[in-house]
Design brief:
The chain is mainly beta and 334 residues long. The protein is built from six helices and 22 strands. The structure holds calcium ion (CA) (2 copies).
């Protein structure tokens, strides 16, 4: 991707043109994504095949220049080869939030599916395919109890939260984007919030009952913003990032403890009055500090239009003959 200083290996998204979708099986089982050699299969997962131009997530290594990937379809014998766990393989949580609903928002790591409560709106127009909408009253996605050993415990760990938010910034103060805690300020866990006018303007990340980085910078209301938080557990070096760039903020060091609590997307879990109002999309949690290049990539890589900017998603001619020579596809077809 132009603008990177080195290579990154990251999950990414691309939209599939309607012209290619029309060649595929009705459920998209024969879709494949390859690297620029046209043959090396990439781990991929379809967020919402019912869309006119479905969005596919895949994992790849991107360099400083344009990156070309191929999308194939048109093999009536191919069976489903999606590997959502592969796409999310270095994450501890990966919620594309484009689920059809009405009950579950799936975590592609396979561990912490969210159950909606309060009437979360599925199928909102998102930054990457669909998104979830939260009414700011009682809507949230319940991730349940994060017990000892759950990857989302992140005790003693660094972390990165990456998320697209389209906030309203009215309603509750200290609106929780995601929160694992049993008390205020991410007690016994961690949380990231954005706050409108009620108690002062701020975007804040908490760990174990304290603000670890806090800034008066706010996301822009009613449009999609990329927000990220990088946290280290051994020093006051947390950062908040807006649209791929780090922003300042006051700091303090905190260590995330090994403590069982509940966890929610769009609310905290120990009371009411902290509900996020607006839409959320593409929430990812990594158990490490992502680099500046990686944050830049996460902020930019997802809209389908960005892929066109890199010259990616070339739709090759002769798709069917090419795919018939694809060894793995033939194996998959039995
Ligand atoms: Ca989405
Ligand atoms: Ca509601």
């Amino acid at each position: 991707m132009p603008g990177l200083s080195g290579s990154v290996t990251m999950p990414c998204c691309v939209s599939i043109p309607a012209s290619l979708k029309s060649l595929c099986q009705a459920n998209g089982e024969d879709l494949r994504i390859t690297s620029s050699d046209g043959e090396t299969l990439l781990d991929y997962g379809i967020e919402d095949w019912s869309a006119a131009e479905p969005v596919v997530h895949f994992r790849h290594t991107f360099n400083t220049g344009d990156t070309e990937v191929y999308a194939y379809g048109g093999n009536a014998l191919a069976s489903d080869d999606q590997d959502k766990v592969g796409v999310a393989q270095d994450c501890v949580g990966y919620w594309p939030l484009g689920d059809a609903g009405p009950t579950y928002a799936y975590d592609w790591t396979g561990t912490n599916t969210g159950s909606q409560s309060g009437g979360v709106t599925f199928g909102q127009m998102g930054r990457q395919a669909d998104a979830c909408g939260f009414d700011g009253d009682n809507d949230f996605l319940d991730l349940g109890t994060i017990g000892i050993g759950n990857p989302l415990m992140l005790n003693g760990s660094d972390l990165t939260v990456s998320v697209f938010i389209k906030p309203v910034l009215t309603g509750d103060s200290y609106q929780r984007i995601v929160d694992k805690s049993d008390g205020g300020a991410g007690q016994n866990g961690y949380a990231i919030i954005t706050n409108g006018s009620l108690s002062g303007f701020e975007t804040t990340a908490y760990a174990n009952g304290n603000a670890v980085v806090r800034t008066s910078t706010l996301p822009t209301v009613n449009v999609w913003n990329h927000l990220a938080w990088t946290h280290t557990n051994n020093a006051a070096t947390d950062l908040l990032w807006f649209e791929g760039s780090s922003i300042g903020g006051s700091q303090s060091a905190q260590i995330i403890p090994n403590a069982e609590t509940n966890m929610r997307i769009g609310s905290w879990n120990h009371s009411t009055g902290r509900e996020y109002k607006g839409d959320l999309d593409g929430l990812i949690i990594f158990p490490r500090v992502c680099s500046a290049d990686e944050i830049k990539f996460l902020a930019k890589a997802y809209p389908a239009s960005a892929m066109l900017e890199w010259g990616a998603l070339v739709e090759p001619s002769g798709i069917i003959s090419r795919i018939m020579h694809h060894r793995k596809l033939m194996a998959g077809a039995g």
